[in-house]
Structure formats: C-alpha cells, structure tokens
Amino acid sequence: MLQADDTIWRYMKLSTFLLLLDGKAWLPSIANLQSMDPLEGRLGDDFYIELCSELARQVDWNETEKWLRESLSAHVKTEIQRKDGDPNYASKVIAKAYTDSLASRRVAWCWFKSVIESAAMWHQYGNRGIAVKTTVDQLASSFTAGKEINIQEMTYVNRDSQSSDSIKQLIQKQPDLLLRPFFLKAAEYLHEGEVRLVAHCPPRAAGLLVEGIKWRKMVNEIIISPLVPLDESESLKSSLKKVIQSDEIRISQSDMNGKNEPDIGDRIQNILFSTSDENMELLKLPALLRNL
Fold it and tell me: If you average pLDDT over every residue of the chain, what do you get?
C-alpha cells in the first residue's frame, strides 16, 4: 500500500523541468495516454463484464446509466436495440462508455516509485535530462489548496482470466478499483512501478496545463542524467543553483555513469589532445589559417 513518505521520482526532459520551475506542468488526459499505450484501460472483455456488475451496485447508478445512454451515438443505440436478445451486450457498451467518459475527463501525472534510481526510466524518459526526487505527501502538498486530486499506486492486472492476478481475482479484494480504471494497467508494464496523480480536466481535452505548483515544497533532490557529459553537467548544476537559490535542495549528477571524475586515461588524453592553442599548434600556422 502506498505510504505518504514513499520516495517517488519523475524523469523528464530539461525543457519539462524548466516548465516545472515556473510552477507549471503539462498533464495529458487518460484518452491521450490511450493513444500511445494500446493497453491503457483496455484489459479485455472480462474487465467490462466485471465493471458493469460493479456499476450496477452503486447507489446512484440509475442516474449515471441514463446519462451514459444519452451520450451514445445513434448508431450504437440502434445496435443495442438490434441485439436486445444479448443481455451482456448493452452492459458492456455502457461500461465502455463509462471508462471513455472518465478517460476524456481525467488527466494523469505519472511518477516512479523506488528507493533507488532506475536505468530503464533514465533511458525511456530522462535521456540526458533531469530526475526529480520527492515523496507522495510532498507531491500532494505542492498543488493548490482545494484542487481535487487523487494519488495512488497503479495496480497491474494480468489479462489472462485464469491467472491469480486477473481482473476477476482483483475485484474480490478491491471492487471499487474498477470504478477508477485509470489506476489499472496491464501487467506488461509492471516494471514502471508507477504512482499516478489524477485530476479533472475539460471533456475531450488533450490534457491540462496545471499552474501554481509549489515546486519548492515538492523537490527534495535534482539529479542530472548519467548520460550528460561531466563538463556539461557541472555547468548545468551551476545554472540551476543560481535559479533555485536554496541549499535545502540537493543538485547532483547521477553516479550511474560509474564515476563523475575522469580516470587517468582521460587525464592523459586531455594533456595530449587538449584544446589549448599550444597543443593544437596554432601558433605555428600562418595568420590566415589561425583566424576563425
């Protein structure tokens, strides 16, 4: 179970990090994520069968069902009437309409839960970029008071209905989780260890630019990608310190590159092939060839 003091990470491009330093973050809609992830919220027919059963148990289900039916296209309504003899068909259609509606009205901010860095996350999301380290509680407190958000650890589901971690097995322990399918993901993504912050957005929007994020309350540590060259990393650290102006936020480069200091071979190479005028023998060249 997710704890308030659990360590979470956000791996990102430098441009995304600079946006955060301006108190802003772009949160894609769930529907937007579905366009990039074919298994986002699409966990097979069993998912819709179990979901419609759970929806029918809700106190205000009649009102919700009426609203969902009215939102269906004329073609789908006709198809429901045509298949009137199949009781499961209409239920599946309504359950899918429910998930589609949520997907178009919710945005997600995806974080990675771990006590250590992740090589996979660096390569997939933070290549030559930045990672921010924080806790679940600090992430929540960085949002404007009164902003309705929900932060949960993703539940990974095996799409094989016979497995011990299938949808059918899951709902016996957490039936209400089906009502929030944006916290469900296929087991193929288990390596992501995702913690997701979910908030409201206008219907059918690609996402939401959230403003007023109190990043100073959130950020514990800033880590520069291990793929960034040492000199470039030092320059970036110097620039960030000027912007952040706080000793409470640690800025460092990831040590996943093995070391952050050049070895003896690098030092010899610098002596032999340094870019000083002397070692480049520029002084021996005619003036015309020396000039840039």
Answer: 87
